[in-house]
Amino acid sequence: MSITVQWAGQASTWLRCTSCDELIYRPRWLRNLEVCPLCRHHSRMSARGRIEALADAGSFHQLTADEGDPDPLGFVDELPYPQRLERARTATGEREAVVCGHARVRGRSVVLAVMDFRFMGGSLGSGTGELITVAAESALADRTPLLLVCASGGARMQEGILSLLQMAKISQAIARLNEAGILVVSLITDPTYGGVAASFATQADVVLAEPGARLGFAGPRVIRDTIGQQLPPGFQTAEHLLAHGLLDAVVERSRLPEQIGLLLEVADAEGAELPAPDHADTGHVVAAGSGDPWDIVRAARGVDRPTTRDYLNRICDWFVELRGDRMGSDSRTIVGGIGRLGDRHVVMVGTQKGHTSRELSDSNFGMAGPDGYRKAMRLFALAERLRLPVVTLVDTPGAYPGIEAENQGQAHTIAASILRLSSVRTPVVTIIIGEGGSGGALALAVADSVHMMANAIYSVISPEGCAAILWSAGEAARAAAALRLTAPDLTRMGVIDGVIAEPAGGARADHDAAATGVRRTIERVLGELAGLNIEDLVERRRRRLRRIGGAAPASTGSEITA
């Protein structure tokens, strides 16, 4: 769908939106970055128009590449291939279906590869593949992030197998960027299909999309004509794909420079000298609960305690949420993304509960399924590639035990997450902010340093579950005491490394004060871990786990920090 001219005599003044069918004043449409101001339909843009909309003014410097054989197959359909190429070049003013170059977005350096659907449907031919590969190689040489703006109908049939192999050619260039820890961001625009969708468009560290953009391996017409299936409304749109865990975010065109600029900030900070965190006293009052384990259990479960999202909103200077497990689902229980704490960028991952009945239901009461742990592992891998520390916030009664979760391999994904964290080559800090229940909590808590809020709990099983198995259902308070699940007990056993004080009345009474304590602890611990060689860090983590439950606990007393 696009914006088209209503009458030839009014071409310079009025346009009609083919989405909502309303007339639009052309200057208003242009000011709105070619987005309909009435229905928000995002029309297709030229490569140059996109560069102008994304890049800082005057910052773009174009890259070129050898074009190779202009007609490798001698292909003729309605026209000889060279004539078809020449028509596309005349119509668009471009040599190929992509424009590449160096630019800046919000003051941050980036290499751009921007596809143009007007050029033979944005088809991926040898010239397009060569330009995108050169752009990736330039990003590697300069250690500069690569931004791919994708719009394509697929591989270029007129170049046969040579077109198909551009998918692998570009992919190996992306692999080099992954190995070097250089950020790759993909922006999906309408439409993106075929060989582009099945290669570099979806191989990025972060995959964004414009509203309404369509993405898929096969387009609707191909699906209908080959297997006879009628697609449901909204199928393959950005919104549909986001709900199915295949995108990180859907972003309005006007917000793209800001969102991309934040991601580029992460890459721009690589190797920066970080100042020592400020540990000045914030006036926190230690509130470790009544001392009765059952009271602390009930406090840890309180619906008015800060959730993971509450903490993220307060401890991060900014936070970009990244969604999806890339296998068809996006857990609402596991929340994750990239954030900034002062001068340090981190990958944040946490289990989300909620305050209202609706929020608790949407988040499955903090019980994650396999899709949540797959999302978490994807973010752990991203943190490792980009050399960012991981911070996990844990608040879960345990992993979801339902039929669907079991059928999807709940035990396997928990095991894989534990294994992944045990060897991830970047610092990991865990804060247990409420409940830390069983393997569902441990899957996010294999860390270099584990801290708990003063009124949090961490246990192999819930007190109710323990009581039902060993005594009777009414003995939950007795089980809570027997399990030694409070922060001071766990510190004495060497399970955790410290306790974060809560304000008077508990974290529920003052979310801001509780978040200040969490942030200060994260900054302090990351500052301590930052000086370790990565090999020493991983070995230190493994030694920490090795001694759990041994003859000599790691600690003999409880330390409570403000």
SSE inventory with pairings:
Elements: E1 3-5, E2 14-17, E3 23-25, H1 26-31, H2 47-54, E4 61-62, H3 81-92, E5 98-105, E6 108-115, H4 126-142, E7 146-152, H5 160-164, H6 166-180, E8 184-193, H7 194-197, E9 206-209, E10 215-216, H8 220-227, H9 238-243, E11 249-250, H10 256-268, H11 293-300, H12 308-315, E12 318-321, E13 334-341, E14 344-351, H13 357-362, H14 370-386, E15 390-396, H15 403-407, H16 410-423, E16 428-437, H17 438-442, E17 449-453, E18 457-459, H18 463-470, H19 476-483, H20 487-492, E19 498-500, H21 511-529, H22 534-546, E20 560-561
Parallel strand pairs: 6-7, 7-8, 8-9, 8-10, 9-11, 14-15, 15-16, 16-17, 16-18, 17-19, 19-20
Antiparallel strand pairs: 1-2, 2-3, 4-5, 5-6, 12-13, 13-14
Helix pairs in contact: 4-6, 12-21, 14-16, 18-19
